[in-house]
TrEMBL record, chains A, B, C, D:
Protein name in the entry: Acyl-CoA dehydrogenase NM
Alphabetic keyword roster: FAD, Flavoprotein, Oxidoreductase
GO MF entries: acyl-CoA dehydrogenase activity; flavin adenine dinucleotide binding
Keyword Thylakoid set for record: no
Annotated ranges, domain Acyl-CoA dehydrogenase/oxidase C-terminal: 268-415
Lineage: superkingdom: Eukaryota
Acyl-CoA dehydrogenase/oxidase N-terminal domain boundaries: 62-146
Gene Ontology terms: biological process: fatty acid beta-oxidation using acyl-CoA dehydrogenase
Organism for this UniProt entry: Glarea lozoyensis (strain ATCC 20868 / MF5171)
Presence of the UniProt keyword Flavoprotein in the record: yes
Cofactor dependence: FAD
Protein family according to the UniProt entry: Belongs to the acyl-CoA dehydrogenase family.
One of the Pfam families matching this protein, by short name: Acyl-CoA_dh_N
Length: 456, 456, 456, 456
């Protein structure tokens, strides 16, 4: 592997063990993604923002986005996330793609220029895995080509959606159609005309004794009558136009039965496979965001205009320590996510479940902390549109609750861990047996052992 | 004091030592504020929001606000913050007004209905303290009457404004006028026509050897030619219409010399007195916000629609502990601010400086933590406009940096504290002398004493 | 109140609202306690330690302690904690005594010189409240006179003692005697001959359907045959000689039936009243410890021998901020405990339950954090016997778990709080009703209100 | 690589990317270390403790230690840490040895049974790297053979030792001898007769204009007249017998000039190379300790004797979340240290400096937090000798300050990072240039860009 390539700034933060695993094709893609983000995306951030800010075209995918997508496609940077089994795949491993995702995270919309954005990536994987060839041709191919966009619709306002068995939006078969009635939260806005269909999870068989078989997943074209977008849901006040997060009422919405994915009652089977890689992508992008926030903080530290008490912000020992702590925590977080990606590469998404949960819980927490610190270093300006920091923080905060709050994930990990307690108890009893034996042999008086008194 | 009055819910969270100091007039005002907020403000929150949300009238003070201000004024709830020396003052102590401020904090715009809102309160105190009778008649009285509104203009983009000696906006005398040139951040928007003037701090005598005498404060009517509002500054994405936070360019803005306050070079004298009580008000309002957020969290905890794993959110031991921790921290914070108010009552703003800084540092940190936890308990909805929580968090985050970041305030407190170190060192030497004497008398071998070896 | 008295350093940290409530007698006692601790105790710390360190007399109350107790008694500083209804009481309120307790906390054994130490204080209150005159004469009076010492025995190794209904040590009546069998943890060591009796809680009526009536409390003289002290329990390695914390086996230990307190099955009634004031004392002492640790940190900050990178430790901005943060948190904590004491004075121990729990949870956490920071400022020496910091930290850590872990207390507070949720839900429904009415009147479209969609 | 080997419990926590790099010899050593620790060490913990606790032999290396060292040596488990260039080295990489070190950390003295304990490991590397063949034969070989033990002596009470240029213990040449005078802290006790020599750093050339050339390192046999051990320094009350941490006075201590290492004035050259790998070993052992603490916590969670409110400790959702959080943080920490070890393997100790500092700062903090939580889950017993937790916590706390406090290390990292700020500033200017160019081309109005107003 030529050292010259890896001396490219794209690789500065990648740990040695990961660098040594990158294939030439990965090295070239990572480099290209980096150059694209640095040269084509970051400098144009304010222009993208100003295009979106026009009230008349707020919910339209902007000309600049279309332009950049064309460029990225031409440069071979489309669909980099695609697993090897896709013919369109560039063949990157999860670990390799994770390196790309971090770089894309440096501007929140860069992912979209390369057709690697949520929820598209998850939807593409889902459709590829579970659809019939006919369905794929109709729904999947346009997504891969970047000529259409889709959304995922699961969360509901009146149940605890982190427990998906409670989802209540009704899907009822009537003849050759499914009829849908309910209220859904989130999912890209119907107001954006590029959004062509929803992948919707609903309750099709409420009486089924097995609660995991009660739900189905169907494709609902956005043009279907009966869908009303009540509002766009803001996230900490941000509308996230032109994609947004809709709140929808489905009233007698009818889709043909061929729009069902995999078959009735199989929604959980489908949901299962969806989330793993997407969570890793989210987390790596957050790390990329943190790097940008960190770079802005460093710049502020040496800003010659900003010298409280006559010295630069970076001359304060307290800020020197803050900078260090951020650096340490971002790098620590990266190791967690890269390890999760590598674990998925080696042992599959299922075996990687714990490592994915670890990322999902730890990284957004780290990211909100770090970006908050960066805002604080910026003083009052740090909270305003003068910097991209508030949007970054909000995105990190959003990831901390998207796909369920930390506590739900921690609960899951904790319950899995407690299942291992019995094994350690047995081992501890074995220690104690050996101890009692040795104490007897050596004539030593027996003590309380790990909280177990000699009486027991 | 009739127990029946204090059994009113307005007093539930007020600690006994404060309750016992409340005068009958304070009790009646606190009760009235509470009833006004509960009955007239909170239920109308969404209506206020919908009035503001119309693009055509976004930067206009809304009809509902005018209506409520009339009601509050009629009910004797106007200008409650005014210190006793004002003839319009209801005569509340800082401690008593603090109890009102907490309640006003339950809805962020309730303060305005009672003419107790920032920056008006600070401006009113400033004008009352430092203006000539003629100035007072012209600028102060309309604020007290609630017929005009004002703004404060200090922060600048290109210096470290937390060190106000660096403020660079130029004020130059030319004949009978001051000419102002510079760029300012924050201060209510000029777009709102009720905003009549800025109290602006600028650099009038850059060569003065005493850096505390270089700045002046002048009144600048918003109608003066030469002021351009470049944009509204958003705070974490919120525009805070219809008041907002402007970014301004002053280009050859001319005001008559009679608009100067107190005289040239006296800006620091003026700024000094301004901040104390305002910081306490901010902090008490944050506590009121936290109480609302907390109540919403409690409601979510028993929401029968939200039952992950089949039990209510409030049945999870982890959430039970979270609720407790919030309760404990909010109540702890209240004690800090009430003590600061009481210290100001007893010993004046200057003596209260430490206690005010303590509030300024601790309370916004507590509030962001607590409200963040409440959002998390709400799941995805907690970040959306379905609850007032995101706005509350943003306000708390804003207070954490307004008037300077935590670190600047901590730095000030720390440096004051280090000045006391010598005293403790002396005392410790005295301990050691006594120890050495006693050791000698008792024939005991001398040990290292608090890190000082016997060699020294 | 003469200003001169309150300018005494004993009052430096006492907030104005407390100062204004102190009676002359309290002022004189607080002053005297301060002078005693500063002049008689702190300088002799290493001598006390060296007396205890002799292996031959490790478990003997030391000559210096006896001497100081005599001095304190002569100076009228004995039993200051005693509530007014005792004839020996100096008549201090909880609030006033709290000020004394803080000062006593400056050296961990100073409380004992003034007969105000745990567990004696709790035992004295218990015996005074629940014993017969004959019992009082025999057991209580020597404690008040300081001629005997006692211990409390409740915790057990093989149950969850934070849930006292599980206590299993058996108390069985046989004729005129109770026979005791079981294993107990904690309680001053039997090895110290001044320890005259245990107040023991055990299970006397296991079949009683009411689990709160199954336990009894009896007085067990340390001289009773059948008690074996298995070991001294160390706390983080400290043996806390000469009092220590014993682990005991009771084997057919017989006491006369007249040693029962209040009657069979009444242990919970007794335990109830015991803990409130003691917890406040503990917490105030911790605050006194923190002040000492803080003073040592300040001294280190200006130590001219310690100048990494050529500047004193206190010249580092990071340490300046650390000092400030400690100062803020200690003072915040004091307000919490003083408020709890005042609440008990006004409304009794029962009404003060929440405020006591608040202290119990927040203060030891603050104290371990603050003292840990002080150790860190001291570098390697901070962990050694060169400073009293490690013992202080250990004591704070101990208080954090004594009388049950934080989590158990938080759980209790949280469950009490959740009982109030219904009230807020009702109020929120009322808000919504008003909103719906107003929206209708004003012709405004109805929005989701605090997470409740318009559908509901 | 046979799966059967890696299914051995020794590999459970080792991440896939590390597993795939382990050579067969490493796999066999890791397995053997694990079995040795599990079967020979952990069960005998209380026996080791009871042997050390006898006052008569407290400062003697215990018979059980000698026995286990013989066993370990015979099993080929001696000196596993030795780098490949030693003929005694088993040839493990830093990464491979790190896996061994974690396992050794499960009992704090297990490292010593395998001659892999601090400070021996650092001393061996130092002597091997910088000594003459004659010195090696005399001083190094016995350490490798395990027939002697040594100590390192650097820290002093009256300077800021974290800045080693301040070290003041004088080394003066007189004829063929160096004469040493001063006071030193830490270093294994002279009371233990197996401790044969100190490697001492002192000030030999105070007038040298280059402060990095003023110090020398000499070997001082413990038998040299003039050394007095003033006391053993306890760490949080623990004496850490039979090795301990001495405080020494050197009074005219004379050693032959051939005892100098490398030559006069070269102490910093020597110190430089010493610390890297040792810090990694410390950190991995802490992780092993955390795993044990965690296992004990899990066992407590399912303890059927401990059921507050009638359910096991592990049934509380709050504890389930606590368990999860610990699991996540321990695993995160391991990735940090393993990455540091791997970086050293690839690029050498110097290039690994940042990664080593990252471990040094993050891991002890994590470990004290995690072990503290485990103690808390154990209730009161968790602080006593009934569990090994207090000793574990104390060791982690010690590592947090050994080799300098966190803040000193963070300071170093922060200053290194700030040196990179200029580069990011340049890049940001480049972004802005591109933005201004694009804005001009597209006719878009220019906005403030990352805090830089259009004026600039």
């Amino acid at each position: 592997m030529p050292t010259s390539t890896l001396s490219h700034p794209a690789f500065t933060r990648i740990p040695p063990w990961v660098q040594s695993k990158l294939t030439p094709i990965a090295i070239s893609k990572i480099t290209a993604v980096y150059d694209f983000v640095e040269n084509e995306c970051i400098p144009l951030e304010p222009i993208m923002k100003s295009q979106i800010s026009s009230p008349s075209s707020r919910w339209t995918t902007q000309p600049l986005m279309h332009e950049l997508r064309e460029k990225a496609k031409a440069a071979g940077l489309f669909n980099l996330f695609l697993p090897k089994h896709f013919k369109e795949s560039p063949g990157l491993t999860n670990l390799e793609y994770a390196c790309c995702a971090e770089i894309m995270g440096r501007v929140y919309w860069a992912q979209q220029t390369m057709n690697c954005h949520a929820p598209e990536t998850g939807n593409i994987e889902l459709l590829a895995k579970y659809c019939t060839p006919a369905q794929k041709k109709k729904w999947l191919q346009p997504l891969l080509d970047g000529t259409a966009s889709s959304a995922y619709s699961m969360t509901e306002p009146d149940v605890a959606s982190s427990d998906a068995t409670q989802i209540g939006c009704r899907i009822t078969r009537e003849g050759d159609e499914y009829v849908i009635n309910g209220r859904k939260l989130y999912g890209n806005c119907i107001w954006n005309s590029e959004n062509k269909f929803y992948i919707l999870m609903g309750l099709s068989d409420p009486e089924n004794p097995n609660k995991w078989n009660r739900h189905s997943t169907v494709i609902v074209p956005t043009s279907t009558p009966g869908i009303t977008q009540v509002r766009n849901l803001t996230i900490m006040g941000y509308d996230h136009a032109p994609e947004g997060h809709g709140e929808y009422v489905y009233k007698d919405v009818r889709v043909p039965v061929e729009n069902i994915i995999l078959g009735e009652g199989r929604a959980f089977e489908i949901a299962q496979g969806r989330l793993g890689p997407g969570r890793i992508h989210h987390c790596m992008r957050l790390i990329g965001q943190c790097e940008r926030a960190y770079e802005l903080a460093l710049i502020r530290c040496i800003d010659t205009r900003k010298t409280p008490r006559g010295k630069s912000i970076g001359s304060f020992d307290s800020n020197i320590e803050r900078i260090a702590q951020m650096r340490l925590e971002i790098d620590q977080a990266r190791l967690v996510v890269l390890n999760a990606a590598d674990t998925m590469d080696k042992h599959g998404n299922k075996a990687g479940r714990y490592a994915i949960a670890q990322s999902k819980i730890l990284i957004p927490n780290m990211a909100t902390r770090v970006i908050d610190e960066c805002m604080q270093l910026y003083g009052g300006q740090g909270l305003t549109q003068h910097t991209p920091l508030p949007e970054m923080w909000t995105y990190a905060r959003f990831v901390r609750i998207a796909d369920g709050p930390d506590s739900a994930h921690r609960h899951q990990v904790g319950r899995d861990e407690l299942k291992t307690a019995e094994k350690f108890l047995e081992r501890n009893k074995e220690y104690r047996r050996k101890y009692l034996k040795a104490a007897k042999e050596m004539g030593v008086e027996v003590e309380t052992f790990h909280g177990v008194t000699p009486d027991v």
